[in-house]
Amino acid sequence: MKKIVFIAVLSHVMLTTPGITQFNHPWQGKKAAVVLTYDDAINEHLDNALPLLDSLGLKATFYITAFSNSVQTRLNDWKKLAASGHELGNHTLFHPCNGGPGREWVSKQNDLQNYSVRRIENELRMANLFLQALDGKTKRTFAFTCGDMKVDDSLFINGMRNDFAGARAVRNEMHKLNEVDLYNIDCYMVNNHSFEEMKAWVDKAIQTNSLLVLLFHGVGGGNSLDVSIAAHRELLLYITQKQKEIWTAPMIEVAEYIRQQQPGFKH
Ligand SMILES: [Zn+2]
């Protein structure tokens, strides 16, 4: 009997003591944060991902390449997507990447190696202006195209910290709240992974109190980097079932939260 009373008191203390709760639940009172990101603005995001996200009440970040075919032909659909609470993230105007061996698809005019720092800054600021015209917002996050971060040997994001709340890279890692680098946020890129494989990432994030950022390209087609509709659906359902343990929000909200929480962050 005494033992039961002790446990009851202890659990009450644990639930009502902010320090202990925060230690185990650092992400807005949850154990982990999961950010769903979709890159390159393709039709399958509008047709296959968005209806499921909206039916489950999950908000995501869509990293928009402004000059993509889908944006050119379905501008109003992208506006509606933003109006329903998803973030339009910046993924450049023209999707420049470093060309070279293995990157033969990169055209000469979109080769980042032919850019100057000023040119990529101008492109990203113009993309921000374009996205602002769609959603009215002046704060958003960026995703490096092909994970390429340098122009002329310099990290161009360093001169743009006031333009973005954070920037997503492509390294397969997850980090605790105080370890996240806001201008080099790691993520797990989905490339025909099964539900079980992706579920394991989610479970690891919960176990380690980490931020898990998922990067999707195709969803049921639209890109060679793909996820099946079934695996994507199962994963989103699993994340929804785990909402007591997982905070799911667009990258902009999570980045602003991290900025507030990290001691000594230069505001
Ligand atoms: Zn991309």
What order do the helices and strands come in, and which of them pair?
Elements: H1 2-16, H2 18-24, E1 32-39, H3 43-56, E2 61-64, H4 69-73, H5 75-83, E3 87-90, H6 117-135, E4 142-143, E5 150-151, E6 154-155, E7 167-168, E8 175-176, E9 188-189, H7 195-208, E10 210-216, E11 218-219, E12 226-227, H8 229-241, E13 246-248, H9 251-261
Parallel strand pairs: 1-2, 1-10, 1-13, 2-3, 4-7, 9-10, 11-12
Antiparallel strand pairs: 5-6, 8-10
Helix pairs in contact: 3-8, 7-8
This protein binds zinc ion (ZN).
Please, could you describe this protein's structure?
α3 (43-56) runs parallel beside α8 and α7 (195-208) packs parallel to α8 (229-241). The protein has one domain: TIM Barrel, CATH 3.20.20. It has 267 residues and is α/β, with parallel strands linked by helices. Strands 1, 2, 3, 8, 9, 10 and 13 form a 7-stranded mixed β-sheet that branches. Strands 4-7 form a two-stranded parallel ribbon. Strands 5-6 form a two-stranded antiparallel ribbon. The longest helix is centred in the middle third of the chain and has 19 residues, at 117-135. 40% of the residues lie in helices and 16% in strands. The structure holds zinc ion. Zinc ion binds next to loops.
Proportion of residues in extended strands: 15-25%
- Second-tier CATH architecture: Alpha-Beta Barrel
Number of domain modules: 1
Classify the fold: give the CATH topology.
Answer: TIM Barrel
What kind of sheet is the major sheet? Answer: 7 strands, mixed
Number of helices: 9
Rounded Rg: 20 Å
CATH class label: Alpha Beta
Structural class: alpha/beta
Global mean pLDDT: 93
Low-pLDDT sequence parts: 5-17
CATH homologous superfamily caption: Glycoside hydrolase/deacetylase
Spell the H/E element sequence.
HHEHEHHEHEEEEEEHEEEHEH
Tell the overall outline: globular
**Ends apart, CA distance between termini:** 52 Å
Bound small molecules, by name, code or SMILES, are:
zinc ion
Percent helix among the residues?
A: 40-55%
Got a strand count? 13
